[in-house]
Amino acid sequence: MGLLNAIIKNIKHNNTTNNRQKSSRDARTRISPVKQTDKVTTAESEYQIIASLDEITCEKCGRMDLKKFKDSEYEEGKTSPPFHDGCRCSTAPYFPPDEIDRMFPEHNQRTARDPASKEIYYVNGNTSYKKWKETLSDEQLKAIELHKEQEKRKDINHEEYKIICSKLPDVAPKSFAGYMRMKNSNSKNYIGLIDKLDNLK
After folding, report:
1. Mutual angle of helices 138-167 and 188-198, in 10-degree steps
2. In the predicted structure, residue 67 carries a pLDDT above the cut 60
């Protein structure tokens, strides 16, 4: 599998969703910062980054969570989402934490999802992704790592299928699902397909 492995090594590991999901999420993300930051129009207005507290959020987005910027510093990809393909971050007007606690003493919360059980629960609204992750158990942290590995494998499988369709269009499976059935069962057809791909080098 020399040729296939050589190509797969060049895959970017931070691509964690398929192309359709990425396109849809990026479209929503590009809309949200504009609409939300437009709500505050004063010269000194600021906004903050909002990431999701769950196992899907990548480390880059996690580091950006609750960071604040002036409106004049707005730059997509650097100080505003999307930060990468498939980014789920959004923005919101920034208010000092003590002001939010004063205005909403009983309702300053944000949602989080248990990486292991997938149950939704609530944490203090000022809890950043970093602080949230520090509260997780070993089991929950392992669930995050497992998700990352699963997403990497999905990316590799999709890339493999794209390569096979490009190099061997006459014998390539008609669907990605069909390709995965062949691969997971390690069928003769799959083995023959990979042998043909290697013979192209």
Report:
1. 70
2. yes
3-state secondary structure of 42: coil
Six-digit token string for 110: 């944000």
Dist. CA 5–CA 134, nearest whole Å: 36
- By DSSP bridging, strand 120-124 and strand 109-113 are antiparallel
C-beta separation of 19 from 85 below 8 A = no
Residue 173 lies in a domain: yes
pLDDT in tens, 10-31: 444 334 444 444 444 444 444 4
Q: What are the distances in angstroms from CA 120 to CA 55, 111, 114, 115?
A: 12, 7, 6, 10
**Separation of alpha carbons 90 and 106, rounded Å:** 24
What is the reported pTM?
Answer: 0.67
Domain containing residue 155:
2-12+141-198
In one-letter notation, the amino acid at residue 102 is R
Number of domains in the chain: 1
Residue 100: pLDDT band by 50, 70, 90 thresholds? Answer: confident
Residue 37 lies in a domain: no
Burial of 80 (0-12, 13-18, 19+ CB in 10 A): buried
48: nearest Cα among 77, 85, 90, 88: 90
